[in-house]
Give the backbone structure.
Amino acid sequence: MKDASRLFVYTSSPEETEELGRQLAEGLQPGTVIALTGELGSGKTTLTKGIARGLQVSDLIHSPTFTLIHEHMGRIPLYHFDLFRLGTPQEIEDLDCDGYFYGSGITVIEWAEKIPDLLPPDHLEVHISCEDSVRRFEIEATGEKSRESLARFRSAMGDISDSMRHGETISDE
């Protein structure tokens, strides 16, 4: 039985990772939260660049570094959180995250594992791991809205390059 709430996709270059983000963005609706996790250098910012491109953001996307949140305007606003330097979850609570999480934009959170209790119940979790030059994206929907986004992405997978198409839906274990 296929699990409609989880998908694995593989990329082998930064360009493919960015294209994956662009394709993912095509099916996102306002209010979607994407929680990115993975080691330093795994491709979180590159995926975010692709999401921004898919949302028609013209700004240069980079890790916010010393700023926790960057706001970018596109066909849907993009709120880019980078929690790498977050000291305590209280720091992020003080920023009124609910305004972003439940607002009219798409929120992408790098280093989301630092705030597991603050994430909305319905979000897309994207865990990135890498071995050599291959990146493995485990994309999991945690609620109804995120399952719809994942279903739209899955249906668009026919347009993704052949090197990324070997990602497979996995079954419940």
